Amino acid sequence: MDIGVLQKITKTAHSLWVKLNQGNNPTYFSIIYTLIAFLLVYLNPRDIISFLLFVTSVYIIYAFQMPAKNKMIFFALFTIILVPIIGIRNIFYLEVIFQICVFAALALGLNIVVGSAGLLNLGYVAFYAVGAYLWAFFGSQQMFLLHSIPGTAPATSDFFLPADSFYIFIILGVLLAAITGILLGSPVLRLRGDYLAIVTLGFGEVIRVMANNLDKPLNFTNGPQGITPIQRPTLPPQALDFLRIFFNPMVGHNVSEGEFYNLYFYLATLVIIIIVIIVARRLDNSNIGRGWIAIREDETAAIAMGIPIVKLKLAAFAAGASFAGAMGVLFAASRTFVSPESFSFMQSIGVLSMVILGGLGSIPGVIVGAAVVVILNLQVLQGLSLYLSQLRQSDAVIPIINFAWKNLSNQLDPAKYQRMLFGIILILMMIYRPSGLIPSQRRKLELSKEIDIIEEDKDRKVGEVV
C-alpha cells in the first residue's frame, strides 16, 4: 500500500475519533454500538464475530472520553444484565468470560510482583494451586480418605465441611497464599533478575510435584487422579425461582440449576475482580506502590533513600499471591475437580504473557491482555480448527491450486500452534510496542525519556563524525 494512502487513512481515522469524542457523542456511540453488538450475538448465539464485537464494546466504553459516572453505569449494565443474558443463551460464552475474569485477576496479582516491584516470578501459578487445593481438601471427602488408596475410595463418603464454608475459605485462601508468598520471598530477597526467575520457577514446580505425589503415606491430594467431587456453595431455591421469572423469557428456555451455577461463579469472579482492582489502584498510588517502583528502577538507589526493600519485597509477594489464592478457591468450587495438570509451568507463562501484552504496571492493560489471550485460545484458534475440520469432511477444493481440503494434515490445526502464535505476538510487541496495548502513564513517560536520550546520543555521535 502506498505511504500517502496509509497516511490519509490514518488522518481520517484520527479526525473521526476526535469528532466522536466531542460533547455527548461518546455516550450516544457507546449505547448504539453496545446495543447493536448485543442484538447481533443474541440473534446469532453461535456467531464468533458477533461475540467479538460484543466483547469489544467494553473497550469502546473504556476508551471514549466520557464522565466517570456514565462509564460506571455502562459497565454495570454490561456486566450484570447483558453478559448474563448472552451467557445463559449460549453457556460457552459465559465460560469464556469467566475464564477472562479468572485470568485477569491472576494477571493483576502478577502485575504487582512483575510490573510494580520488578520481581520476575515464573512460578506464580503455585499460589493459584495453594488456594485450589485448600478448598479441594476441606470441601470434599478427602479428609476421610487419608488412609485409602487413590481410585479405591467409596463414593458414599461424607463431606468434611458444609458447602457454604466456601465463603470462609475464600478469605482463608487469601491468607494462606499470602503466607506462602512470604515464605517464598524470605529466602530469595538477595536475588535479582534471572536468578530470581529460576528460583520462582523451581518453587512452582515443587508445588505441582508435591500435589502429584502427596497420595502416600497419607492420601492428601489423591495424586495425579486429582480430588473430586468438590462442593459448590448452595443456591437458595427461592432465589432461583425468582431469577427464572426474569431469565426464562429472555433466553427462550427454562434455565437449569447448572446454568445458574455458571452465572453465580461469573458474578463471584466479577466481585473479586472489582476488589482486586480497587486494592491494586490504592497500592499503586500509595507510599508502598512508589517504593515498589523505586525498587524496580534502581534497588541500590532505593536502599540509599532509606526505602525498606525487605519489607516491600515481601509485601509484593504477599499481595500478588493473595489474589491468586482467592481465585484458586473459586476455581476448585466451579470445576468441582482439581489435579496437578491444572497448575503447570505453562500456566505461569500464560499469565506472564497477559501482563506483558497488556502493559507492565497498567491495570486496564492487564485486563485487556487477559481478554486477548483467552479469546484467542478459546474462541479464535479453536473456531478456526473446527472450521478446518468441517472442510476436511467435505468435498471442497481450494481454488487455483485445486487441492482437496480433506487431504489437509491435522498437524496444521491453528489450535496446536497457540504457543508459537503467542511467542510471535510477544516478539512483535517487544519490537513495536514495548509498553503494551494500554501502557500505564508512568511507563509512557519512562519510554519517552529513553527515546529522547537515544535520539540525543545519535545526534551527538553524528555531530562528532561531522
Topology:
Elements: H1 3-20, H2 25-43, H3 48-63, H4 68-89, H5 91-116, H6 125-138, H7 166-185, H8 193-213, H9 237-251, H10 257-284, H11 287-297, H12 299-304, H13 309-335, H14 345-358, H15 363-392, E1 397-398, E2 403-404, H16 418-432, H17 441-465
Provide an overview of this structure.
The protein is mainly α and 466 residues long. The protein folds into two domains: 89 residues; 273 residues, no CATH class. It contains 17 helices and two strands. Strand 1 and strand 2 form a beta hairpin.
* End-to-end separation: 36 Å
Helix coverage percent:
over 70%
Cα radius of gyration in angstroms: 25 Å
Quickly count the helices: 17
In short:
The protein is an all-alpha fold and 466 residues long. It has 17 helices and 2 strands. The chain folds into 2 domains: 1-89; 95-367, no CATH class.
Question: Which labels suit this protein?
Answer:
466 residues, mainly alpha, globular
